[in-house]
Structures are given as structure tokens and as C-alpha cells.
């Protein structure tokens, strides 16, 4: 099944599949995580924060897709962080790799059945907002789901009420309390100058945007743009998991024709490396302060 499967064929990877994957994992680790973390491009170094780890390759986990993108190790790691039990995806899969939205977001349904109550999503993104700088971190307060508005989203298909309601609201997708906590911590950690709050726009990729597309996203109110995160957030909210999201601005989107700036994945990974220490500090402190 690819990312552009028709609506009628999209009922695979349901509750029973998520349950059997969760049982597979729970029988192989003693961790019982209440916090899930998904690491974006170049941000998988966060795994170093965990102690007492149990690690699984995506390819060895039933029903998981394998990551094919450089900068996404493709490992699911259970461990302890700030005395809390955490499950972390070191890398993710994307729709542009040929997967349905449902397949991309499937790990979040597994998280739910593992007992996860809070999901932290991170990503690398390009800046649409002209006041943003490369290296900024952006706490996500909202998203624009260009892919999903047209019907390509993981909630399409028969609704399973064991996960959630048929018509979940998304106006509160990014938890207000968690956003406040993240911004407060950023201030306390001396990161105020480069931490923003803004809107993430999602399109399928794998192309970086044209000049016209970037201008359009600007008019629509997007602050940054990327090719991930939103399918995972939709599934998390549908099944009642709270979400905190952070984008790392790895490049400025090109808004002038014939500009010399050309976005590329190498630059994205390099910036991930450069800001990894700050991202790790913020997420680590954040995990320490989460109350279930
Ligand atoms: O969103 P993450 O996985 O962080 O990765 C972002 O970086 C890649 C492009 O360089 C794309 O996959 C885009 O979505
Ligand atoms: N779509 C998109 N994804 C990104 N990921 C990192 N940078 C970018 C970007 O400029 N555009």
C-alpha cells in the first residue's frame, strides 16, 4: 500500500495489529513507557540521553515500516530519562518513502497500547517566516495539513472507537500546557533568543518547495514547512495522547526567484548536528517536568 492509496482500501493496520505489535515489544522489554519521543532528521542523537536501554530495529518489529532516509537510524529504543520510562523512535518513516499515512503513523497507535500518555515530536523544517533564523527551535502551536485536507491522512477509513472518536477536533492538537512548559523551560535554559512558537505546514515531499509554493505557504500563515509529523500528531490526538512538538529550522525556504540559496538534505543534517545539544537539553528537561 503506498501513500496515495484510495480511501476504501485504507482499513489495514488496525487495532489488532497495533495490539500484537505492542505485545511483541512488551514481552521483550521491562520498560513501561508513558512518554514517547519521535526524532526528526539528524536529531536521533537524543537516544544518547537514555540509560538502561532496550533497542529494536524497525525491520525486526512486526508491522513497522523500515526507514530509508539518511539521518533516520530506524530504531525503536526503550530507556530511562530523568527517572521516567520513555520509548524513542530514532528516526521515522515518511509518506514520500512510499508509505500510507496510516503506516507512517502506526507506531503512535502502538505507543498508545504501550501506555504512552504524552508524545514529543521533533522534526527538521525550512523557515517560511522571514524573521526566523537557521538554527532556531520552534515550539509547534498549530499545523496546516495540506496533504490531509485532500484526504490523505491516517484517520481515513472505518473508525475504530477503541482508539477514538470519528470526528476528532484538531484546534487543540498541540497541548497548551505543554507548550507553556516548553517555552518556560527554554527561557530558563537561556534559549529564549532562538526559541519561537509557530505553525508547521506539512506537504508530502520529497521535493523541497518552489518559490511560488513558499510564497503561498507564507500567505497561508505557515512559519515553517516540512514533510512529516502531522500524520503522527493526528493519530496521537485521535487516541487521546497529548502532543508537544518542536521544529528545528535547518534552512530558509527560498522565496526569491534566481536566489543562490538551494535547500538540500546535507544542510538539514548538518544543522541537526549543530543544534543537537540544545534540542537534547530542552527535551530532557521537558521530560523531567512532565506530569502524567
Ligand atoms: O521531518 P523530518 O523527518 O525531520 O525530516 C525533514 O528533513 C527531510 C528533508 O531534508 C524531510 O524528511 C523533512 O521532513
Ligand atoms: N518541505 C520541506 N521540508 C524540509 N525539511 C527541512 N527543510 C525543509 C524544507 O525547506 N522544506
Automatic annotation (TrEMBL):
Residues 34-287 form the Nucleoside phosphorylase domain. This is Purine nucleoside phosphorylase. PANTHER family: METHYLTHIOADENOSINE/PURINE NUCLEOSIDE PHOSPHORYLASE, PURINE NUCLEOSIDE PHOSPHORYLASE-RELATED. One of its GO terms (cellular component) is cytoplasm. Transmembrane segments: none annotated. It comes from Ridgeia piscesae (Tubeworm). Gene3D superfamilies: Nucleoside phosphorylase domain. InterPro entries: Nucleoside_phosphorylase_d, Nucleoside_phosphorylase_sf, Pur_Nuc_Pase_Ino/Guo-sp, Purine_phosphorylase. GO terms for molecular function: purine-nucleoside phosphorylase activity. Belongs to the PNP/MTAP phosphorylase family. A purine D-ribonucleoside binds at residues 209, 251.
